[in-house]
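Aim 2 progress update. The chain analyzed this quarter is reproduced below.
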Amino acid sequence: MKITAVLSTISILVVSTLLLSCGKDNGDSQPHDPDSHSTHSDSITIEDSLDGLSLNKGGKWKMDDHTRSMFAKMASSFLNSDYADLEEADLKKAGAGLQVNINELIQGCSMEGDAHDQLHAYLNGYIPAVTDLSESGQMKDAREVARYLKKYSDYFE
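Predicted C-alpha cells:
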C-alpha cells in the first residue's frame, strides 16, 4: 500500500475518532442556544473566514483548558519557526509533529455543545491541511497550516 493511502486512511480514522470520542461535559462548553449561531459577518470578513465556522453571537467560542493548551503548543511550535526556509523533509517532519499534537488533542477531548461543534468544523479543515503538509512537505501546505493556526484565535478562546 502506498504511503499516501496509508496516511489518508490514518487521517480519516483520526477525524472519525475525534467525532466519536468527544462528549464528556467538563462545564466549559456553552449550552445549546439555537440563536447562538451567527454569521461570518459578525467581525470576520468572508475572505478571512474559514469554511463552516461562525462566531458565538459575535464573540469567540470558549474552549476547555486542554484544547487551549494544545492549540497554543501547535501554534508555538509551528508559527515560531521560519518554515519558509525549511526543506521538504523538514516540512514533512513539522507536519508529522503537528499530527502527534492533533492525536493528543483528540485523546483529551471532553467538550460538548455548540463550541464543540465549531471546533469540529475548524478541525475538518485543519486536519487535512496538516496531513497534506506531512505527506508533501510543500510550502503551499505549510502556508495553509499557518493560516489555520493564525485564524484559531479569531474564533476560539
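The chain has five helices and no strands. The longest helix spans residues 113-136. These observations will guide the mutagenesis experiments scheduled for the next reporting period.
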